[in-house]
């Protein structure tokens, strides 16, 4: 008999100190779990919001995406969950320097710290009603975070306009990180 999911999660978190190698785990589907990650970042289990941030972080550490579906996985169990938009929200951004280059670091609502670089790029996706382009950042293995409004406004302050010689369309705002430029939006 398999050990209970919570016990497995605690053991895995201690063993891997961060994110277990969920990309290597391929158990058969165990079923659907009544767990929903809301657009606003709340994790709701059986109609009740999970209040313990440590439990949310534990679940987030074993989250896996396959196509358009999301799962909580262990080496022996795989539970499908519902995600209304994306599983994470970038709630903070900091600017610093690494190897003489500007680097932006984002912190998610589950404690992940993600650099903006080629391995963690921006993507502009429609969000809201009416749909507006909103930046998302790759956190890990196909899991994305939507930038909070506060983070977006901070980036707008740091953004630069495209140099005139490069302009061939409407205005564009770019930010720099890890030696590269990333499109923040158009105006």
UniProtKB/TrEMBL annotation:
Highest taxon in the source lineage: Bacteria
InterPro entries cross-referenced by the UniProt entry: DUF1285, DUF1285_beta_roll_sf, DUF1285_C, DUF1285_N
Domain DUF1285 positions: 20-86, 87-184
Transmembrane segments: none
Gene3D superfamilies hit by this protein: duf1285 like domain (3.10.540.10), duf1285 protein (2.30.270.10)
Protein name: DUF1285 domain-containing protein
Source organism of the structure: Microbulbifer rhizosphaerae
């Amino acid at each position: 008999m398999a050990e209970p999911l919570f016990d497995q999660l605690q053991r895995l978190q201690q063993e891997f100190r961060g994110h277990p190698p969920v990309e290597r785990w391929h158990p058969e589907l165990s079923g659907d779990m009544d767990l929903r990650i809301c657009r606003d970042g709340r994790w709701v289990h059986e109609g009740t919001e999970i209040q313990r941030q440590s439990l949310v972080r534990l679940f987030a550490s074993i989250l896996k995406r396959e196509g358009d579906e999301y799962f909580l996985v262990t080496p022996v169990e795989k539970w499908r969950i519902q995600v209304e938009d994306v599983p994470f929200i970038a709630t903070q951004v900091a600017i610093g320097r690494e190897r003489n280059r500007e680097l932006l670091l984002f912190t998610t609502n589950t404690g992940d710290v993600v650099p903006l670089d080629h391995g963690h790029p921006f993507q502009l996706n429609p969000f809201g009603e009416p749909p507006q382009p909103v930046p998302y950042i790759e956190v890990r293995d196909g899991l994305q975070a939507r930038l909070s409004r506060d983070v977006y406004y901070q980036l707008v302050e740091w953004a630069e306009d495209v140099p005139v010689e490069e302009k061939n369309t409407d205005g564009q705002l770019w930010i720099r990180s890890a030696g590269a430029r990333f499109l923040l939006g158009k105006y």
